[in-house]
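Section 5: illustrative case.
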């Protein structure tokens, strides 16, 4: 499904900025994880459009851990997504478009500097 992934985690000292960036880019929604909050942790569950439950989380590090994000998102158009990332203040670190050997893909950095990937599956061969 476009703009969705399996479970993942984003660790950042700027969880509000991460919510704004990913919410605007992919249409994701965010809710506080009440169980984590009871344990003193700021963890936000991430919902993806069309998904029947959370698919990831944002861990607010408070600066106690380095930021990280390692996941790939299926997108309808890798080139267009790269342009949108840059428009939102992110960075394209590598991209391979018109890939004859597989999907178009790119490695990107969000506004907190976290690395993530996007890809567009190859179109099926015409019979």
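Designed sequence:
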């Amino acid at each position: 499904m476009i703009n969705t992934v399996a479970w993942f985690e984003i660790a950042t000292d700027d969880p509000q900025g991460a919510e704004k960036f990913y919410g605007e880019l992919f249409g994701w929604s965010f809710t506080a994880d009440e169980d984590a909050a009871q344990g003193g942790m700021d963890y936000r569950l991430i919902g993806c459009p069309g998904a029947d439950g959370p698919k990831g989380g944002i861990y607010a590090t408070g600066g106690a851990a380095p930021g990280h994000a390692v996941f790939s998102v299926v997108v309808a158009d890798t080139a267009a997504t790269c342009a949108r990332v840059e428009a939102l203040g992110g960075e394209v670190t590598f991209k391979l478009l018109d890939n004859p050997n597989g999907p178009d893909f790119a490695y990107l950095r969000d506004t907190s500097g976290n690395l993530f990937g996007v890809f567009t599956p190859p179109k099926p061969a015409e019979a």
